[in-house]
Amino acid sequence: MRKEIPLLITLVSGLVYVIANFFNVPVAKATKTELDQWFLIATAFAVLLGVVNLTIIHLNNVSGQKSGWVYSLILLVSMWGIIIYGLFRTNQDPFYQNILYNRMLNPLSATMYSILVFYIASAAYRAFRIRSFEATLLLVTAIVVMLGRAPIGDLISPALPALTNWLQDIPNTAGMRGIMIGATLGGVATALRVIAGIERTYLSGGE
Amino acid sequence: MHFLAGLQRIDRRILYILVAAVVIYAIVRPIGLPIRVNPQTQMTYNFIDSLPAGSTVVLLLDYDASTIPELQTGALAMGRHMFARGIKVIGASMWPQGGNLLTLWWDQLKKEFPDKQYGVDFINLGYKPGGQVWLEGTLSSIPAAVAGIDAFGAPLTQYPIMANIRTAKDAAAWIDLAAGNPGVPEVVKVIGAQGVPIIAGVNAVSVPENLPLLQSGLIKGLIMGMRGSAEYEKLTGVAGQATAGMDAQSLAHVLLVIFIILGNIGYLAAKGSDAGSKRR
Amino acid sequence: MNLDTVGVWIAALLTLALYSFLWRENPLYRLAEYLYVGLGAGHGVVVTVDNYIRPTIKTSLLQQGKWSYLIPIIIGLLIYTRYIRSVAYLARWTIAFFLGVGAGIVLTRDFKPYFVTQLTATFRSLWVPGKLSTSINNLVLVIGVVTTLTYFFFTTKRVGLLDYSARVGRWVMMIAFGAAFGNTVMARVSLFLGRVQFLLGEWLHVIRT
Q1: Tally of domains in chain A
Q2: Is the peptide bond before B182 cis (omega within 30 degrees of 0)?
Q3: Does chain C have fewer CB atoms within 10 Å around its N or its C terminus?
């Protein structure tokens, strides 16, 4: 029954959505509305999973005094510190929004992703080579779009932003649409396999 | 080996320093390059302009702090436009930082529109988990989908803005500014499927995959990254952070194109040099 | 020195600590990195509990008496059984529920906008009288979509017309990826711009914000 019950859960929950959407069955529609709420509640209560995982891994580092354990301690203190403070504060407390979010999490989050500009510059400089016709096509398109999307494109030539818009509106749309259609067909096929119990990789391990 | 071949091996830290230098220079000494408005942004502006005064829209800020320069600037510009036209805004988010970003958004606009009141002209429903399934829940009842409270724990029943908005379809439009998943595709699939007009704003990375949605009519307008936000600022007549960054954007792009060209000159020189020495 | 000034300095120093990685990895960078992970993970829990778990328990369960919500609460909590070896298999029930709902949503929501609407939007007039540019654009769009789709035919041998079509499809995708790269560069530069505007404006007051 260890594999049958999860398969049954998947089948029933998936079928409720299918019947509610494609057939006019009031009890299915009502069940689907209830399942929506159940999904939200279950997702919310599973939110601690990442935190539990991080706690186990980094507590191990700290207790075993492994290399870099001080950083693990910083992670644990900051994570549980913000959780405990956040859960017991009043809603009007400005410290959480003004300091913890605006002045710590916000700049850390923004800076972490902004470092990518240097990596993409370095990657573009090193990897973009005219090795073949297709590589050249990609390179030329990238250069046209980069210059055309910035205001300097208008200064270089009015044809540049016009060409950029054409490249984005026509060939790019065509390519992306083809990929989108193919991906949707693949997604629908996978969804059918999951509901029918043919796709069972999520059941493997942990007997 | 040809001396030009060395052009493909410039130390990456020189590139880093140059990128930082041109950006800092352009921000400290703006050039003032004119910004032309693209049709996608104009469509967005025209749509919001066509909404009757007093209508209510749902504004989703589905991104985190890293995308503030691209989308928060656009959100502020759209917010100015909507408040100037008397449009009410229900804010929500499918991303954990979205509620805080809505607070920042409201705090900024409240200074510019002191007559606007929380609960009357704007409400922050905060972050709600569940992504697309949360959106499904809003089709039957928005209050139920948000557990009956706003981002600060206050019951929705006390706020006039929620009086006539029970379900997703009661809003005049849904505006989703998103940097990934969950985001625009989910809103299009669930809310758009009900015939509710959707306006999208995406970071530049997501622009190519959202253009087919605009072209097929699934969304009524598209703000394309920081450039789109700068264009919207121009249309509303208030130059903000996005406009201020456009010169730096231009110079950084030119620098990168120069380095790509240099790298290819070096590559071709090395290739020619290798071919020549093989022949000899 | 007020709290806001202290806050700006904290934000600036954390920003510079992360940027120090560009020179080489160092303890300041690692401190900022681990702090970011800890705060980010914790913040997600706080907003979820504040915005959903607490009101669900208080309003839906205790005030409105919707005791059926205990079932999804238990389903959600079952995911933590993965840490207890003897009952770890129960975590599959949670995953099965999420997958079933997710698959149901894909089947009912994805097909129309991402397949049917995209196909119908591709049915464009190949000849529009009096509008040569529109005709050419429509032709390029239709050929582009069809050839891109033929590129993904991996179960048949690529000979003749299919081979040419797949090659053209590859070229169309190269243009799409080139446009994607150009936009990605724009996005990354924008992220960096925001930080520079903060450092020069709010922190050093070199520019007006």
Answers
A1: 3
A2: yes
A3: N
User: Across the interface, do C183 and B132 touch by the CB < 8 Å criterion?
Assistant: no
- Identify the residue whose tokens are 């749309």: A173
- Please tell me the pTM assigned to this model: 0.90
The CA-based angle B24-B28-B32, given to 5 degrees, is 110
- Shared-domain flag, residues B54 and B134: yes
Do residues A121 and A185 share a domain?
A: yes
- Asked whether the ipTM of the predicted complex exceeds the cut of 0.85, the reply is yes
In this prediction, residue B139 carries a pLDDT of 93
State how far residue C157 is from chain A, nearest Cα, in angstroms.
Answer: 19
Q: Is residue B250 within 8 Å of residue A149, measured between CB atoms?
A: no
The answer to whether position A97 is within a domain reads yes
Q: How do B88-93 and B122-127 pair as beta strands?
A: parallel
For chain B, list the contacting chains (3+ Cβ pairs, <8 Å): A, C
CB B231 within 8 A of CB B38: yes
**pLDDT > 90: percent of chain B:** 84
For an interface test with A, give the residue of C89, C112, C120 to mutate (most A CBs within 10 A): C89
Cβ contacts of B227 within 8 Å, gap of 6 or more: A149, A150, B35, B38, B204, B242, B246, B249, C186
| Cα B74 from chain centre | 6
Asked if B119 and B221 sit in the same domain, the reply is yes
Contact at CB, B19 and A91, closer than 8 angstroms: no
Domain boundary among A114, A136, A161: A114
Instruction: Note whether B253 contacts C207, CB cutoff 8 Å.
Output: no
DSSP-assigned letter for residue B92: E
Q: Which of residues 7-66 of B touch C (CB under 8 A)?
A: 13, 16, 19-20, 23-24, 27-28, 66
Range of A89's domain?
49-114
CB contact under 8 A, A91 and B152: yes
| Token pair for B171 | 């809003």
Contact residues of C toward B, CB < 8 A: 22-23, 43-44, 47-48, 50-52, 54-56, 59-60, 101, 105, 109-110, 112-114, 117-118, 120-121, 176, 179-180, 183-187, 189-194, 196-197, 200, 206-207, 209
Closest CA to B85 of B122, B45, B52, B42: B52
Residue A207 confidence class, pLDDT cut points 50, 70, 90: very low
Q: Would the CB atoms of C183 and B241 count as touching at under 8 Å?
A: no
Q: Do A171 and C176 touch (CB under 8 A)?
A: yes
Q: Which residue of A has its CA nearest to C76?
A: A42
Q: Print the domain residue range for B19.
A: 3-30+248-279
Q: Where are the beta strands (DSSP E) in B42-151?
A: 56-62, 88-93, 122-127
End-to-end CA distance of chain C: 20
Min Cα–Cα distance to chain A from B230, Å: 10
Return d(Cα B23, Cα B247) in angstroms, integer. 8
Over residues B135-160, the mean pLDDT reads 91
- How far is residue B95's CA from residue B91's CA, in Å, rounded to a whole number? 12
